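This protein record is not my work; I was only asked to verify it. Where you disagree with what is written, explain briefly why. This is what I was given:
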Amino acid sequence: MSVRVDEYTLGVEEEYQVVDPETRELRSQGGWVIERARDEAGDGDVAAELMESQVEAVSSVCRTLAEVRAEVSRLRRVVIRAAGDKGRIVAASTHPFSHWREQVVTPKERYRVLIEAYQQLAQEQLVFGFHVHVGVKDRESAVRVINRLRVWLAPLLALSANSPFWLGEDSGYASYRTQVWGRFPVSGPPGFFESRAEHDALVEALVRTKTVEDATKIYWDARLPEKTETIEVRVADVCPTVDEAVMVAGLSRALVRSCFERDGREEPYPAARPELLRAAHWRASRYGLEGEMIDVEEERVVPAGYEIQKLLDFARPALEELGDWDEVSGIVRETLERGNGATRQRAVYRRTGRLEDVVDMLVAETARGT
């Protein structure tokens, strides 16, 4: 059942904020930025999102982590250049103080339907996502891979957490995006499925009962996309630095590969209860790397460093086979030492007392390495 290394392709989607250079408020200039950026986007893509203050950058298909780094750097550079004097670009999953009531919804039918269906819940979705696609062509195996992957999603969230502020206040969460996004009826940790047929039957039931308009609006933290032969890992916050984006992409691919190969050997794994998984995601969202995490396999709370080391140990054989161990483990160690994006945002605010300075820090980190 083994798959050649070059079949574990990678694709990355990042959603950026467009902020005013003077006020640091979100600015509804996404359409203008996208129009200018698309000429330079090349094989990747720059697209609209729900709010006009958002810009989504989609990488081309990558086969190595070096290609991912080059694509993320290039797309950030393209969008930053396109914004020019009209805006600054921020990679973070919430804006520190802009209000959702002041945002302009992008005039597209998809978003009109979303607002009509979910009303204020959708209007409040002033959050920004980071998604990693890992190529797995066998859809039956992909379902079993997600079953195994579920227990590793919370540590990924903790490493990437980068949304502590909401509407001008410290939310008390490292990833408040997780709480805002998690209100949708089909978000959060994926369920356990015995087969592809069981997975597809549930998706069909969700569409038939008008819970979602179509399968593309199922927003689980790891899912099977409708249009690509990939597993999409959606649990992470947008990372402020290119290094951290590369880290999450590399870990996502290594976890998928590790789960796939263990599935081929029929190794046992915890069929975790959904209640425990949701609790693990909540704790990762609440504390990030600065508190205890839930080890779903051991069913106990453990120090964050312990759980992140366990994640690395699980993924290490795949990371080494892919040639990614030194780079990814090094960035993980650095993140544990200096803190994730949420920790660094709070450090700036404690030092200056100005959320505008937090935005400036994020602008600088977003551009670093591009």
